[in-house]
Amino acid sequence: MAHDRVHLNVGGKHFVTSRTTLANAGRGSMLAAVIDENWQLVPDAASNELFIDRNPAYFTVLLDLLRTGELHVPPGMLEKPLYREAEYYGILDHVKAARKGPLNGNRLDCVASISGRATGDGTAIRASPDGGCCVAHGSMVHVYDWLMEEQTPLTLDYVNVNDVGFLSSNRVVICTGERENGAGGMASFNTRTGKIEHKFQVVHDGESKNFTAGALASSDKHVYASCRGRSYEYGVGTWDQITGQQASFLYEGPGRPLGDACKMQWLPRTNLLLVANLFPSSDHSFITLLDSRTKGKVWSWTDAALRGTADEKIVMDTVAMEECSTVCVVNQFDNLGFIDMRANNQCVRWSYRYQPSKISEAEERFYSKLACSGSQLFSSKNDSVYVFCSPDWDAAKGVQTARLRRKEGGAISDISVGGDRLFVLHNEEDVFDVWETPGSSQIVDIY
Questions:
Q1: Alpha-carbon Rg of the chain, whole angstroms?
Q2: What does the alpha-carbon distance between residue 323 and residue 308 come to, in Å, rounded to a whole number?
Q3: 438 and 356 in one domain?
Q4: Is the pLDDT at 343 greater than 80, yes or no?
Protein backbone atom coordinates (compact mmCIF):
# COMPACT_ATOMS: atom_id res chain seq x y z
CA MET A 1 0.00 0.00 0.00
CA ALA A 2 1.10 3.59 -0.68
CA HIS A 3 1.29 4.65 2.96
CA ASP A 4 3.63 1.72 3.68
CA ARG A 5 6.17 2.81 1.09
CA VAL A 6 9.38 4.57 2.05
CA HIS A 7 11.47 6.50 -0.49
CA LEU A 8 15.19 6.73 0.17
CA ASN A 9 18.03 8.42 -1.64
CA VAL A 10 21.27 6.64 -0.78
CA GLY A 11 24.33 8.32 -2.25
CA GLY A 12 22.28 9.63 -5.19
CA LYS A 13 20.44 6.40 -5.99
CA HIS A 14 16.68 6.14 -5.52
CA PHE A 15 15.28 3.24 -3.45
CA VAL A 16 11.67 2.34 -2.72
CA THR A 17 11.02 -0.08 0.13
CA SER A 18 8.42 -0.64 2.82
CA ARG A 19 8.11 0.14 6.50
CA THR A 20 7.79 -3.59 7.11
CA THR A 21 11.16 -4.26 5.49
CA LEU A 22 12.92 -1.49 7.42
CA ALA A 23 11.32 -2.71 10.65
CA ASN A 24 13.21 -5.99 10.13
CA ALA A 25 16.36 -4.07 11.00
CA GLY A 26 15.25 -4.13 14.63
CA ARG A 27 14.64 -1.50 17.25
CA GLY A 28 17.56 0.76 17.93
CA SER A 29 18.96 0.48 14.40
CA MET A 30 19.50 3.50 12.16
CA LEU A 31 17.05 2.12 9.59
CA ALA A 32 14.35 1.60 12.21
CA ALA A 33 14.74 5.27 13.11
CA VAL A 34 13.72 6.16 9.56
CA ILE A 35 10.18 4.94 10.25
CA ASP A 36 10.08 5.90 13.93
CA GLU A 37 7.78 8.90 14.40
CA ASN A 38 9.70 9.93 17.51
CA TRP A 39 12.70 10.83 15.37
CA GLN A 40 10.57 13.13 13.16
CA LEU A 41 12.78 12.71 10.10
CA VAL A 42 11.48 14.96 7.35
CA PRO A 43 11.89 13.87 3.69
CA ASP A 44 12.85 16.28 0.94
CA ALA A 45 9.79 18.35 0.01
CA ALA A 46 10.34 18.06 -3.75
CA SER A 47 11.24 14.36 -4.08
CA ASN A 48 9.64 12.99 -0.90
CA GLU A 49 12.93 11.12 -0.28
CA LEU A 50 15.04 10.75 2.83
CA PHE A 51 18.68 11.30 1.92
CA ILE A 52 21.39 9.00 3.33
CA ASP A 53 24.96 9.90 2.39
CA ARG A 54 26.33 6.37 2.03
CA ASN A 55 27.47 3.99 -0.73
CA PRO A 56 24.39 2.76 -2.66
CA ALA A 57 26.05 -0.47 -3.86
CA TYR A 58 26.44 -1.81 -0.32
CA PHE A 59 22.98 -0.57 0.64
CA THR A 60 21.50 -2.64 -2.20
CA VAL A 61 22.94 -5.82 -0.66
CA LEU A 62 21.84 -4.93 2.86
CA LEU A 63 18.32 -3.97 1.82
CA ASP A 64 17.99 -7.31 0.05
CA LEU A 65 19.09 -8.99 3.30
CA LEU A 66 16.27 -7.28 5.18
CA ARG A 67 13.79 -8.30 2.48
CA THR A 68 14.78 -11.98 2.13
CA GLY A 69 16.86 -12.87 5.19
CA GLU A 70 19.68 -13.97 2.84
CA LEU A 71 22.99 -12.27 2.17
CA HIS A 72 24.17 -12.38 -1.45
CA VAL A 73 27.45 -10.57 -2.12
CA PRO A 74 28.09 -9.97 -5.81
CA PRO A 75 31.48 -10.88 -7.33
CA GLY A 76 34.06 -8.17 -6.88
CA MET A 77 32.44 -6.58 -3.82
CA LEU A 78 34.75 -6.39 -0.82
CA GLU A 79 33.12 -7.86 2.23
CA LYS A 80 34.88 -5.90 4.97
CA PRO A 81 33.51 -2.55 3.75
CA LEU A 82 30.11 -4.21 3.56
CA TYR A 83 30.36 -5.09 7.24
CA ARG A 84 31.29 -1.54 8.10
CA GLU A 85 28.24 -0.28 6.23
CA ALA A 86 26.10 -2.82 8.09
CA GLU A 87 27.48 -1.50 11.38
CA TYR A 88 26.54 2.04 10.34
CA TYR A 89 22.95 0.99 9.64
CA GLY A 90 22.80 -1.01 12.88
CA ILE A 91 22.27 -4.41 11.24
CA LEU A 92 25.68 -6.03 11.72
CA ASP A 93 24.11 -8.84 13.74
CA HIS A 94 21.87 -9.64 10.77
CA VAL A 95 24.91 -9.95 8.53
CA LYS A 96 26.75 -12.15 11.00
CA ALA A 97 23.75 -14.46 11.36
CA ALA A 98 23.51 -14.81 7.57
CA ARG A 99 27.24 -15.32 7.13
CA LYS A 100 27.67 -18.21 9.54
CA GLY A 101 25.36 -20.58 11.36
CA PRO A 102 25.38 -21.72 14.99
CA LEU A 103 28.47 -23.70 15.92
CA ASN A 104 28.06 -27.28 14.69
CA GLY A 105 31.15 -29.40 15.15
CA ASN A 106 30.09 -31.77 12.39
CA ARG A 107 29.89 -29.05 9.71
CA LEU A 108 32.84 -26.81 10.50
CA ASP A 109 34.99 -25.26 7.78
CA CYS A 110 38.37 -23.64 8.29
CA VAL A 111 37.69 -20.10 7.07
CA ALA A 112 41.01 -18.50 8.01
CA SER A 113 44.57 -19.25 9.09
CA ILE A 114 46.17 -16.22 10.72
CA SER A 115 49.93 -15.86 11.01
CA GLY A 116 51.13 -13.83 13.94
CA ARG A 117 53.94 -11.28 14.00
CA ALA A 118 55.72 -12.48 17.13
CA THR A 119 58.60 -14.91 17.29
CA GLY A 120 58.33 -18.16 19.22
CA ASP A 121 55.25 -20.13 20.15
CA GLY A 122 51.91 -18.80 21.34
CA THR A 123 50.91 -20.18 24.72
CA ALA A 124 47.12 -19.65 24.86
CA ILE A 125 44.22 -18.59 22.67
CA ARG A 126 40.89 -17.21 23.93
CA ALA A 127 37.68 -16.54 21.98
CA SER A 128 35.68 -13.35 22.39
CA PRO A 129 31.85 -13.28 22.64
CA ASP A 130 31.49 -11.79 19.14
CA GLY A 131 33.84 -14.17 17.32
CA GLY A 132 37.17 -12.40 17.73
CA CYS A 133 40.08 -13.82 19.71
CA CYS A 134 43.36 -13.07 21.43
CA VAL A 135 46.66 -14.95 21.61
CA ALA A 136 48.97 -14.82 24.63
CA HIS A 137 52.57 -14.77 23.49
CA GLY A 138 55.13 -14.55 26.30
CA SER A 139 54.70 -11.03 27.69
CA MET A 140 52.43 -9.89 24.86
CA VAL A 141 48.79 -10.39 23.93
CA HIS A 142 47.73 -10.05 20.30
CA VAL A 143 44.04 -9.22 19.86
CA TYR A 144 41.92 -9.78 16.73
CA ASP A 145 38.40 -8.54 16.07
CA TRP A 146 35.76 -10.78 14.49
CA LEU A 147 37.01 -9.81 11.01
CA MET A 148 40.44 -11.10 12.09
CA GLU A 149 41.97 -7.66 11.90
CA GLU A 150 44.67 -7.24 14.53
CA GLN A 151 44.08 -4.55 17.14
CA THR A 152 46.67 -2.72 19.23
CA PRO A 153 49.10 -5.31 20.70
CA LEU A 154 49.19 -5.35 24.48
CA THR A 155 52.67 -5.37 26.03
CA LEU A 156 53.04 -6.41 29.67
CA ASP A 157 56.51 -4.91 30.44
CA TYR A 158 58.31 -8.26 30.13
CA VAL A 159 56.01 -10.04 32.58
CA ASN A 160 54.80 -13.38 31.25
CA VAL A 161 51.06 -13.78 30.79
CA ASN A 162 49.46 -16.51 32.91
CA ASP A 163 45.93 -16.19 31.52
CA VAL A 164 43.79 -13.82 29.47
CA GLY A 165 40.06 -13.51 28.82
CA PHE A 166 37.47 -11.21 27.29
CA LEU A 167 35.08 -9.10 29.33
CA SER A 168 33.44 -7.81 26.13
CA SER A 169 34.35 -7.61 22.47
CA ASN A 170 36.72 -4.67 23.14
CA ARG A 171 37.86 -5.35 26.72
CA VAL A 172 40.27 -8.03 27.95
CA VAL A 173 41.64 -8.87 31.36
CA ILE A 174 45.17 -10.24 31.72
CA CYS A 175 46.76 -12.17 34.59
CA THR A 176 50.52 -12.06 35.14
CA GLY A 177 53.10 -12.90 37.74
CA GLU A 178 54.23 -10.55 40.53
CA ARG A 179 57.43 -8.55 40.20
CA GLU A 180 59.64 -7.01 42.86
CA ASN A 181 58.71 -3.50 41.77
CA GLY A 182 55.03 -4.24 42.33
CA ALA A 183 54.23 -4.69 38.64
CA GLY A 184 52.18 -7.68 37.56
CA GLY A 185 49.01 -9.03 39.05
CA MET A 186 45.89 -8.41 36.96
CA ALA A 187 44.54 -5.58 34.79
CA SER A 188 41.86 -4.91 32.18
CA PHE A 189 42.66 -3.25 28.86
CA ASN A 190 40.72 -1.54 26.10
CA THR A 191 41.70 -3.47 22.97
CA ARG A 192 40.99 -0.53 20.66
CA THR A 193 43.34 1.88 22.42
CA GLY A 194 45.68 -0.58 24.15
CA LYS A 195 45.36 1.36 27.40
CA ILE A 196 44.78 0.00 30.90
CA GLU A 197 41.26 0.52 32.25
CA HIS A 198 41.65 -0.99 35.72
CA LYS A 199 44.45 -2.54 37.72
CA PHE A 200 42.79 -5.06 40.01
CA GLN A 201 44.10 -5.12 43.56
CA VAL A 202 43.94 -7.57 46.43
CA VAL A 203 43.21 -5.70 49.64
CA HIS A 204 43.82 -7.34 53.01
CA ASP A 205 43.23 -5.47 56.29
CA GLY A 206 42.88 -2.24 54.32
CA GLU A 207 46.26 -2.64 52.61
CA SER A 208 46.92 -3.47 48.93
CA LYS A 209 49.04 -6.58 48.47
CA ASN A 210 51.30 -7.74 45.64
CA PHE A 211 50.20 -11.03 44.12
CA THR A 212 50.51 -13.38 41.19
CA ALA A 213 47.29 -13.86 39.26
CA GLY A 214 46.89 -17.29 37.71
CA ALA A 215 43.76 -18.58 36.02
CA LEU A 216 40.74 -16.33 35.46
CA ALA A 217 37.08 -16.40 34.48
CA SER A 218 34.31 -13.83 34.19
CA SER A 219 30.53 -13.59 34.58
CA ASP A 220 28.26 -10.77 33.39
CA LYS A 221 29.25 -8.56 36.33
CA HIS A 222 32.39 -9.95 37.93
CA VAL A 223 35.93 -11.14 37.24
CA TYR A 224 37.40 -14.09 39.14
CA ALA A 225 41.06 -15.07 39.45
CA SER A 226 43.24 -17.44 41.43
CA CYS A 227 45.70 -15.46 43.52
CA ARG A 228 49.00 -16.35 45.12
CA GLY A 229 50.65 -13.78 47.38
CA ARG A 230 53.41 -13.61 49.93
CA SER A 231 51.32 -14.02 53.05
CA TYR A 232 47.51 -14.14 53.22
CA GLU A 233 46.68 -13.59 49.56
CA TYR A 234 46.04 -17.23 48.66
CA GLY A 235 42.66 -18.08 47.19
CA VAL A 236 40.14 -16.77 44.68
CA GLY A 237 39.46 -13.05 44.27
CA THR A 238 36.30 -11.45 42.91
CA TRP A 239 36.21 -7.98 41.35
CA ASP A 240 33.54 -5.77 39.83
CA GLN A 241 34.02 -5.57 36.05
CA ILE A 242 32.93 -1.94 35.76
CA THR A 243 34.65 -0.33 38.74
CA GLY A 244 37.56 -2.74 39.14
CA GLN A 245 36.94 -2.82 42.90
CA GLN A 246 37.45 -6.01 44.89
CA ALA A 247 34.09 -7.51 45.82
CA SER A 248 35.27 -10.46 47.93
CA PHE A 249 38.14 -12.87 48.51
CA LEU A 250 37.95 -16.57 49.40
CA TYR A 251 41.05 -17.23 51.45
CA GLU A 252 43.02 -20.46 51.68
CA GLY A 253 46.43 -21.18 53.13
CA PRO A 254 49.62 -21.32 51.01
CA GLY A 255 49.92 -24.43 48.87
CA ARG A 256 46.16 -25.03 48.75
CA PRO A 257 44.53 -25.75 45.39
CA LEU A 258 42.42 -22.61 44.88
CA GLY A 259 45.29 -20.13 44.92
CA ASP A 260 47.39 -22.26 42.57
CA ALA A 261 44.58 -22.96 40.08
CA CYS A 262 45.60 -23.19 36.43
CA LYS A 263 42.08 -23.18 34.94
CA MET A 264 38.79 -21.51 35.82
CA GLN A 265 35.41 -21.54 34.09
CA TRP A 266 32.21 -19.64 34.79
CA LEU A 267 29.00 -21.72 34.60
CA PRO A 268 26.17 -19.25 33.88
CA ARG A 269 23.20 -21.61 34.25
CA THR A 270 24.10 -22.65 37.80
CA ASN A 271 26.09 -19.55 38.87
CA LEU A 272 29.00 -21.80 39.78
CA LEU A 273 32.71 -21.26 39.29
CA LEU A 274 34.92 -24.19 38.30
CA VAL A 275 38.42 -23.95 39.78
CA ALA A 276 40.99 -26.56 38.73
CA ASN A 277 44.54 -27.16 39.92
CA LEU A 278 46.12 -29.66 37.56
CA PHE A 279 49.48 -31.06 36.50
CA PRO A 280 52.10 -29.61 36.19
CA SER A 281 51.02 -26.87 38.62
CA SER A 282 50.35 -29.53 41.25
CA ASP A 283 51.40 -33.12 41.91
CA HIS A 284 47.71 -33.94 42.39
CA SER A 285 44.61 -32.81 40.55
CA PHE A 286 41.90 -30.82 42.32
CA ILE A 287 38.65 -29.71 40.67
CA THR A 288 36.21 -27.60 42.70
CA LEU A 289 32.86 -25.93 42.03
CA LEU A 290 32.32 -22.74 44.06
CA ASP A 291 28.96 -21.05 44.67
CA SER A 292 29.43 -17.43 43.64
CA ARG A 293 26.80 -16.26 46.13
CA THR A 294 27.95 -18.07 49.27
CA LYS A 295 31.64 -18.40 48.26
CA GLY A 296 31.45 -21.98 49.47
CA LYS A 297 32.47 -25.26 47.86
CA VAL A 298 29.49 -27.22 46.53
CA TRP A 299 31.33 -29.96 44.66
CA SER A 300 34.87 -31.28 44.49
CA TRP A 301 36.98 -34.07 43.04
CA THR A 302 40.62 -35.05 43.49
CA ASP A 303 42.89 -37.87 42.45
CA ALA A 304 45.13 -37.49 45.51
CA ALA A 305 44.17 -40.94 46.82
CA LEU A 306 44.60 -42.61 43.44
CA ARG A 307 48.16 -41.67 42.59
CA GLY A 308 50.94 -44.23 42.59
CA THR A 309 48.94 -47.04 41.01
CA ALA A 310 50.24 -49.06 38.07
CA ASP A 311 47.62 -47.50 35.78
CA GLU A 312 48.27 -43.94 36.86
CA LYS A 313 46.40 -41.28 34.91
CA ILE A 314 47.30 -37.61 35.27
CA VAL A 315 44.58 -35.08 34.45
CA MET A 316 45.97 -32.44 32.09
CA ASP A 317 42.85 -30.38 31.30
CA THR A 318 39.18 -30.13 32.23
CA VAL A 319 35.96 -28.45 31.15
CA ALA A 320 32.47 -28.46 32.66
CA MET A 321 29.43 -29.14 30.46
CA GLU A 322 26.43 -27.74 32.29
CA GLU A 323 23.82 -29.16 29.91
CA CYS A 324 25.12 -32.66 30.62
CA SER A 325 25.88 -32.16 34.35
CA THR A 326 29.34 -33.48 33.59
CA VAL A 327 32.93 -32.45 34.20
CA CYS A 328 35.11 -33.75 31.38
CA VAL A 329 38.82 -34.41 31.85
CA VAL A 330 41.66 -35.63 29.65
CA ASN A 331 44.83 -37.38 30.80
CA GLN A 332 48.41 -37.60 29.55
CA PHE A 333 47.43 -40.42 27.19
CA ASP A 334 44.66 -38.36 25.53
CA ASN A 335 42.01 -40.50 27.19
CA LEU A 336 38.75 -38.69 27.92
CA GLY A 337 37.10 -39.06 31.31
CA PHE A 338 33.70 -38.04 32.65
CA ILE A 339 32.72 -37.09 36.21
CA ASP A 340 29.12 -36.64 37.39
CA MET A 341 28.57 -33.11 38.75
CA ARG A 342 25.41 -34.14 40.61
CA ALA A 343 27.24 -35.85 43.48
CA ASN A 344 30.59 -35.52 45.25
CA ASN A 345 33.40 -38.08 45.34
CA GLN A 346 32.52 -39.57 41.97
CA CYS A 347 34.95 -41.78 40.08
CA VAL A 348 36.19 -40.84 36.63
CA ARG A 349 34.69 -42.96 33.89
CA TRP A 350 37.49 -43.21 31.36
CA SER A 351 36.95 -43.64 27.66
CA TYR A 352 40.08 -45.05 26.09
CA ARG A 353 41.20 -43.56 22.78
CA TYR A 354 44.95 -44.00 22.87
CA GLN A 355 47.39 -46.00 24.97
CA PRO A 356 51.12 -45.44 24.44
CA SER A 357 53.44 -48.40 24.54
CA LYS A 358 55.67 -46.57 27.03
CA ILE A 359 55.48 -43.49 29.21
CA SER A 360 58.23 -41.70 27.25
CA GLU A 361 55.98 -41.77 24.18
CA ALA A 362 53.35 -39.77 26.04
CA GLU A 363 55.95 -37.32 27.35
CA GLU A 364 57.10 -36.49 23.81
CA ARG A 365 53.63 -35.53 22.64
CA PHE A 366 51.67 -32.32 23.13
CA TYR A 367 48.95 -32.72 25.75
CA SER A 368 45.31 -32.50 24.78
CA LYS A 369 43.17 -29.43 25.40
CA LEU A 370 39.40 -29.35 25.93
CA ALA A 371 36.63 -26.91 25.02
CA CYS A 372 32.85 -27.23 24.82
CA SER A 373 29.77 -25.64 23.33
CA GLY A 374 26.45 -26.89 24.68
CA SER A 375 26.55 -30.68 24.42
CA GLN A 376 29.49 -30.64 21.99
CA LEU A 377 32.94 -31.49 23.30
CA PHE A 378 36.13 -30.56 21.43
CA SER A 379 39.39 -32.32 22.26
CA SER A 380 42.74 -31.69 20.59
CA LYS A 381 45.24 -34.45 19.90
CA ASN A 382 48.52 -33.80 18.09
CA ASP A 383 47.53 -31.85 14.94
CA SER A 384 43.77 -32.56 15.03
CA VAL A 385 40.65 -31.58 16.95
CA TYR A 386 38.09 -34.31 17.62
CA VAL A 387 34.42 -33.52 18.06
CA PHE A 388 32.25 -35.56 20.43
CA CYS A 389 28.47 -35.30 20.65
CA SER A 390 26.32 -37.46 22.89
CA PRO A 391 23.08 -36.92 24.81
CA ASP A 392 24.12 -39.43 27.46
CA TRP A 393 27.43 -38.77 29.12
CA ASP A 394 26.57 -41.19 31.94
CA ALA A 395 27.59 -43.98 29.58
CA ALA A 396 31.11 -42.51 29.53
CA LYS A 397 31.15 -42.88 25.79
CA GLY A 398 31.45 -39.55 24.07
CA VAL A 399 30.56 -40.43 20.51
CA GLN A 400 33.18 -39.07 18.11
CA THR A 401 31.39 -37.45 15.19
CA ALA A 402 34.10 -35.45 13.41
CA ARG A 403 37.82 -34.83 13.08
CA LEU A 404 39.16 -31.38 12.17
CA ARG A 405 42.64 -31.15 10.69
CA ARG A 406 44.71 -28.94 8.44
CA LYS A 407 47.86 -30.05 6.64
CA GLU A 408 49.83 -27.04 7.85
CA GLY A 409 50.42 -25.72 11.33
CA GLY A 410 51.71 -28.74 13.19
CA ALA A 411 50.78 -29.85 16.70
CA ILE A 412 48.05 -27.99 18.60
CA SER A 413 48.86 -26.18 21.85
CA ASP A 414 45.44 -24.71 22.71
CA ILE A 415 41.82 -24.43 21.56
CA SER A 416 38.94 -22.09 22.45
CA VAL A 417 35.25 -21.71 21.55
CA GLY A 418 33.25 -18.47 21.41
CA GLY A 419 31.11 -16.37 19.09
CA ASP A 420 30.05 -19.53 17.20
CA ARG A 421 33.67 -20.18 16.25
CA LEU A 422 36.37 -22.67 17.15
CA PHE A 423 39.91 -21.28 17.41
CA VAL A 424 42.91 -23.61 17.14
CA LEU A 425 46.41 -22.44 18.11
CA HIS A 426 49.33 -24.41 16.68
CA ASN A 427 52.48 -24.96 18.66
CA GLU A 428 55.16 -25.32 15.99
CA GLU A 429 54.26 -22.23 13.99
CA ASP A 430 52.99 -18.80 14.97
CA VAL A 431 49.58 -19.45 13.40
CA PHE A 432 46.02 -20.10 14.48
CA ASP A 433 42.99 -21.39 12.57
CA VAL A 434 39.40 -20.15 12.62
CA TRP A 435 36.65 -22.75 12.15
CA GLU A 436 32.97 -21.92 11.75
CA THR A 437 29.73 -23.42 10.46
CA PRO A 438 28.89 -22.06 7.00
CA GLY A 439 25.64 -20.18 6.57
CA SER A 440 23.28 -20.31 3.62
CA SER A 441 24.47 -17.05 2.09
CA GLN A 442 26.67 -16.68 -0.98
CA ILE A 443 29.75 -14.86 0.21
CA VAL A 444 33.22 -14.46 -1.20
CA ASP A 445 36.30 -15.19 0.91
CA ILE A 446 37.39 -12.08 2.84
CA TYR A 447 40.68 -13.37 4.17
A1: 25
A2: 34
A3: yes
A4: yes
